[in-house]
User: Fold Isopenicillin N synthase from uncultured Microbacterium sp.
Amino acid sequence: MSELNLPVLDLSRLDDGPEAAARFRDDLRRATHEVGFFYLTGTGVPAELEARLHRAARDFFALPAADKLAIENVRSPHFRGYTRVGGERTQGKVDWREQIDIGPEREAVADPDAPDYARLIGPNLWPDAQPELRTVAAEWHDHLSGVARRLLRAWAIALGAPESYFDEHFGEPSTLIKIVRYPGKEDPTPQQGVGAHKDSGVLTLLWVEPGKGGLQVRRGGEWVDAPPVPGAFVVNIGELLEYATQGYLTATDHRVISPTFPDDRISVPFFFNPALDAQLPIIELPAELASHARGVTQDPANPIHSLYGENALKSRLRAHPDVAGIWHADLVAARTAG
Assistant:
């Protein structure tokens, strides 16, 4: 794997004794300090579950348009359900992909005095024609939540904090599964499958269809390819972890280039973030690490909030202006006026 542009880490080293675990934590810290992205093997996620997820994704996107549009996200004030091709934006530009968004299954918040971000809480939209999608998504969520928690505990120790640091400050995690299909494009120039961006939360675990490239990561001012590796997830950190470490760990720009027609590409990012009402405090790094903290990259037009709910709401309103306009016109007007 020496030709890969990202580091490769093996999570199972945490089970190989104190010395191997310590080396894994050092590698984890180094990878996310220097790059912000890495491949993760040894997760214990069954290959059979990966195959079922892949099949469920293909089956969903093969449904008749009427079945998919019956659960279109414009029907959900919580930004759940199906997004048709061109229905999402990054940096104001249209992304060439279709997807279904699946979050925690909860009742909508009826309290009119609840904070704005509470509007993100609510039920998912599931296709009647494919009941098995809900089952495989729940299994995927449980497996990847376990992987995410192991990583966060390893990070905590690597950063000089108690192992339980993130467990104590996360609350009930806000998770999001996106099952995405990138259709092929015939244009001769690269097209925006999803535009350049940094994730707004803490941690992303990405499963990519075997053999399908397109993901690119910015390293040293250049875009480098991050092709799928068999049995591995592509892992990256988000802006909130950069904020909590005051720039010691790096949230990195990444994008997806559309495949060339007639090819297409399936990917499934899993976002593991704190509770909407959780405020991730700044970690007091050891002096030798703190001296290498670069500070947080702040864009006045896209501020990073320590309260996760504010980050999440900001991202959803920008990415889905049609949903925002239908269900949250008051929030859009307030932010425009501000």
About this structure: The two ends are 49 Å apart (CA to CA).
